[in-house]
Design a protein that fits this description.
Radius of gyration: 28 Å
CATH class of the largest domain: Alpha Beta
Distance between the termini: 75 Å
Number of helices: 9
Strand order of the largest sheet: 2-1-7-6-5-4-3
Number of domains: 2
Order of helices and strands: HHHEEHEHEEHEEHHH
Largest sheet: 7 strands, mixed
Length: 292
């Protein structure tokens, strides 16, 4: 005779996907995302460089790399920040100010007498993702776009610029934090960014875009130990006038050339075609029928 079991076992409450994704996102991950966004803005944005910022973000033995240089100290990284900030807002001085500075006619004259702004750059963060390496360290990947606007004075001014996103907007309890947590992908993060006060419609040939991928490695203290920026060669060449069309033509010619070289090699070595190697009858078609 079967008897019922009087013991009741505890049950595990089920969690929804949204609750799980929120619980998995820790305060440390949010700090890494905020640091990544601030570092990209510091390198390619309009934020003025500061030694305190480099001291706060980077480890004492941090390394920065891009396709053109390698910095192995915080002093060099700070100099790179200063150079990037200078190029982001490049002003053209007046001719007489240049002459006075070259011939030292006025020792107190500096490059303050600007004629017009020749270059303006700003950064747009598209996506921030994070992963953990086998040794337990955190690694953050940032996909962002560097906008380069030549002669920004030729573009019409748009409406008032939105207010700067406050640092507290990345902290728990704010609306932007919920947008960071409740995203389509568990590791995807969207960060607010600023647009320049210029109207870029219709598209201007003086507006250049360079996609960049930034990889940041953090230590246990949350400091950046390795910072590397990846620039694609195709994107770099696309910044030059006319190179986009040249790349479009040359890449297809190169693909057809490789096909011709393979055909010549097969004919020279008397290698059967791919269909004969795979055992496909010559009369068979890819649609499943045969030729009669």
């Amino acid at each position: 005779m079967a008897t019922s079991n009087p013991l009741s076992f505890p049950t595990v409450p089920s969690l929804t996907l949204s609750q799980t994704s929120v619980d998995e996102t820790s305060a440390l991950s949010l700090a890494h995302h905020r640091t990544a966004a601030d570092v990209c803005e510091l390198f390619y944005g309009e934020s003025p460089p500061a030694w305190q910022t480099v001291e706060r973000f980077y480890d004492a033995h941090a390394t920065y790399e891009n396709p053109f240089l390698t910095a192995t100290s915080k002093d060099t990284i700070s100099d790179v920040h200063a150079l990037a900030h200078t190029l982001s807002q490049l002003d053209i001085p007046k001719p007489w100010a240049v002459l006075r500075a070259l011939f030292r006619l006025s020792p107190d004259t500096r490059w303050e007498n600007t004629w017009f702004r020749g270059l303006s750059m700003w950064n747009e963060v598209n996506n921030i993702s994070e992963c953990e390496t086998f040794d337990g360290h955190k690694r953050t990947m940032v996909e962002h776009t560097l906008h380069i606007l030549i002669l920004p004075g030729l573009h019409s001014a748009s409406g008032p610029q939105p207010a700067d996103p406050s640092p507290t907007s990345f902290l728990p309890g704010s609306d932007s934090t919920m947008s960071l947590l409740l995203s389509d992908h568990a590791n995807a993060r969207s960060v607010p960014f600023q647009h320049p006060p210029h109207s870029l419609w219709p598209p201007s040939p003086l507006h250049l875009k360079l996609p960049i991928i930034t990889r940041l490695s953090f230590n246990d203290a949350g400091k950046i130990t390795y910072h590397r920026d990846f620039w694609d060669v195709k994107d770099l060449l696309g910044l030059l006038p006319g190179m986009t069309l040249v790349q479009w033509v040359s890449s297809r010619i190169a693909a057809q050339s490789i096909r011709g070289i393979v055909s010549v090699g097969r004919a020279f070595l008397r290698t059967p075609p791919r269909d004969e190697e795979a055992g496909v009858p010559s009369g068979a078609t890819y649609g499943g029928g045969t030729k009669w």
